[in-house]
């Protein structure tokens, strides 16, 4: 894998955002006098916020979902997003990648305001050439595939030397839509690792299971190893 550029997912890949996000969900439901229809667990984190909120609320209709979203944003944007530590080894990985001359970007379903607030809080802004979220654009981008496509276009990146790193099958599908290699961050929140290893064509390569252009990275350090392989 000759890698010149890496695009990262954020939640569940670079940062452990579960404490702040799940607390904000609970505050939103409390403020609206409602009960979540499913347990508030880290597996909820990653998909677009509106979609997840509607599902957690039991699809009550746009008016209720909008109220929940308003309360969630109040709680999360104020202090909740600051309760977001990085995963162990992530900052060291990013520092090593930049020293190797690899360009770094973020494509996340998280809204721009809390994303940039987290980047500033962690002191990470200097690592990334661009941080892209759905509401970074008007109209908003519908999914990560569109965000990745925009990054490739804006920065004239070669798909053959660009990798996306994320922790969910949806991230792999967004990579595939843009013909990128995908590193599945198995330390993250995704529940779909087994799906990556189904069927034929799975082989062992430098300690990771690889099928087609999808490779499992078990630690942040292994991202560096695979990128430089």
Secondary-structure blueprint of this entry?
Elements: E1 5-8, H1 18-31, H2 49-56, H3 62-78, H4 90-99, E2 103-107, H5 112-122, E3 130-132, H6 144-154, E4 162-166, H7 169-177, E5 181-185, H8 193-196, E6 203-205, E7 208-211, E8 214-217, H9 220-227
Parallel strand pairs: 1-2, 1-4, 2-3, 4-5, 5-8
Antiparallel strand pairs: 6-7, 7-8
The CATH superfamily of the largest domain turns out to be: HAD superfamily/HAD-like
CATH topology of the largest domain: Rossmann fold
Distance between the termini: 6 Å
Share of residues in strands: 5-15%
Q: For the CA atoms, what is the radius of gyration?
A: 17 Å
Mean pLDDT figure = 89
At CATH's second level, what is the architecture of the largest domain?
3-Layer(aba) Sandwich
What proportion of the residues is helical, as a percent range? 40-55%
Largest sheet report? 8 strands, mixed
The global form is: globular
The low-pLDDT segments are 195-211
SSE order in H/E notation?
A: EHHHHEHEHEHEHEEEH
Strands across the major sheet, in which order? 3-2-1-4-5-8-7-6
Number of domains: 2
Class of the largest domain, according to the CATH hierarchy? Alpha Beta
The count of helical stretches stands at 9
Secondary-structure content class: alpha/beta
Q: Could you characterize the architecture of this molecule?
A:
The protein has an 8-stranded mixed β-sheet, sandwiched between helices. Strand 6 and strand 7 form a beta hairpin. The chain has 2 domains: 5-16 and 84-227, HAD superfamily/HAD-like (Rossmann fold, 3-Layer(aba) Sandwich), CATH 3.40.50.1000; 18-82, DNA polymerase, domain 1, CATH 1.10.150. The protein is α/β, with parallel strands linked by helices and 229 residues long. Helices cover 40% and strands 14% of the residues. The protein is globular, with a radius of gyration of 17 Å. Helix 1 packs across helix 3 and helix 4 runs parallel beside helix 9.
